[in-house]
Design goal:
- The protein has helices at residues 19-31, 42-51, 68-78, 90-97, 113-128, 163-174, 182-189, 201-215, and strands at residues 11-15, 35-39, 56-60, 83-87, 105-108, 143-146, 151-154, 157-158, 222-225, 229-232.
- By secondary structure, it is α/β, with parallel strands linked by helices.
- It folds into two domains: 11-137, Rossmann fold (3-Layer(aba) Sandwich), CATH 3.40.50.2300; 143-232, Winged helix-like DNA-binding domain superfamily/Winged helix DNA-binding domain (Arc Repressor Mutant, subunit A, Orthogonal Bundle).
- A five-stranded parallel sheet has the order 2-1-3-4-5. A three-stranded antiparallel sheet has the order 6-7-8.
- β3, α3 and β4 (83-87) form a beta-alpha-beta unit.
- α1 packs across α5 (113-128) and α6 crosses α7.
- It is globular.
- Bound molecules: calcium ion (CA).
- Residues 17-18, 60, 62-63 line the site of calcium ion.
Length: 236
């Protein structure tokens, strides 16, 4: 089989000032047959983005010359390129999960480079579909999301979801294992949380579960975390 040339490989811009972390990511990206590009500052990354196109940006929040959130907004003002944040601080995660920033995903440091490349591939899959086969032959994910048609696929089957169910499930798919409180889910999924007090999160979770069980009767991936809320089981 012919090797992919550089022009065919997905171009991943890594904006990270810590050389060891940047190297680790670059290595993992390279292993996945994608092309790593590196900038140690927001300034350098900005210059690069004016000249070149990239398929995805991995963006450290703590950069020496500019806050990653501000930099993300600048990128968003001119491009829809997918962005994954790297963050070392818990309070930053809350801002990212609030999703006002325009990021597609985030990873909390320390993270596994392999998990990062899995997220990169998942995002590229839903943004433009075409990817070279992974060298490490990742298993197909349990869930995939088509944002264009607002469809969630569970084990390859399209689910018929209401808007609220779609938004809640899609949020949890992006953050497997993370526990979301009812308030967080409602805040995210409902445009006017107060207007829909009669349509509780619990009811929607219940119908979501039964829809997952029409695909797999043994499905238990949508978990109740008593006293906390709900989470999606992380393993495949
Ligand atoms: Ca940093």
């Amino acid at each position: 089989m012919e090797q992919n040339t550089d022009s065919q490989r997905k171009r991943i811009l890594i904006v990270e000032d810590e050389p060891a972390i940047a190297d680790n990511i670059a290595f993992a990206v390279e292993t996945e047959n994608m092309l790593p590009l590196h900038a140690a500052t927001a300034g350098k990354a900005w210059e690069f983005l004016q000249r070149e196109t990239v398929d995805l940006v991995v963006l450290d929040v703590g950069l020496p010359d500019e806050n990653g959130f501000d930099f993300c907004r600048r990128i968003r003002a001119q491009s829809d390129v997918p962005i994954i944040f790297l963050t070392a601080r818990k309070e930053e995660i809350d801002r990212i999960v609030g999703l006002e920033i325009g990021a597609d995903d985030y990873m909390a440091k320390p993270f596994s480079p392999r998990e990062l490349t899995a997220r990169i591939r998942a995002i590229l899959r839903r943004t433009n579909g075409h990817l070279p086969p992974s060298k490490s032959a990742e298993p197909e994910p349990m869930f995939s999301v088509d944002q264009k048609t607002k469809t969630v696929f569970y084990k390859g089957h399209a689910l018929e979801l209401s808007r609220y169910e779609f938004r809640m499930l899609e949020l949890m798919i992006r953050h497997p294992g993370q526990v979301f409180s009812r308030d967080q889910l409602m805040e995210y999924a409902w445009e006017e949380p107060d207007a829909s007090y009669d349509r509780t999160v619990d009811t929607h979770i219940k119908t979501l579960r039964s829809k997952l069980r029409t695909v797999d009767p043994d499905s238990d991936c949508l978990q109740t975390r008593r006293g906390f809320g709900y989470s999606l089981r992380a393993e495949k």
